[in-house]
Amino acid sequence: MADAQVAIMMGSKSDLPILEAAAETLKEFGISYDIKVLSAHRTPKECCAYAEAFRSKGGKIFICGAGVSAALSGVVAAHTTLPVIGVPIDASPLGGMDALLSTVQMPPGVPVGAVAIGKPGAKNAALLAVRILSLSDPSLEKKLDNFREEQRQKILNTDLN
Ligand code: RP5
Prior knowledge:
Blueprint: E1 6-10, H1 16-28, E2 33-37, H2 44-54, E3 61-67, H3 72-78, E4 84-89, H4 97-104, E5 113-114, H5 119-134, H6 138-156
Parallel strand pairs: 1-2, 1-3, 3-4, 4-5
The protein binds 5-O-phosphono-beta-D-ribofuranose (RP5).
5-O-phosphono-beta-D-ribofuranose binds near residues 14, 66 and 68.
């Protein structure tokens, strides 16, 4: 999408069911996004070119989801100075621990903000992106306040009797 604020990238189409949670949340907050399959290992040139070009197109934040030896968020972070949020995905017999460590253990100087494995992480990645964007958009701050109140009411209205 032209003029997207957030880029959602994933290493394989098999990651889509997880990253959809990020896309849905961004949609709920009215944030424009571009969603792409580009792999750090399988399409390294295209992946880096996309990461390098996104800021000049008006992009602000990357959400990158990948499984196994998840290099995507780190490689993207190496090719941009925009914030990168990495979502580790459970795609191997290690249950996502491999992707979690690949995502979170970045060397100093190339930051990636790592969130939880799987759908909870994908949703939080989007919410974190909204929080970052809200720094320069007061209407998003209001939406985040409303969202928090909705969550509070949902818990308070839980009747187990
Ligand atoms: C990673 O390898 C992808 O992010 C995906 O999570 C995993 C498996 O990819 P496929 O074999 O399903 O394409 O690069």
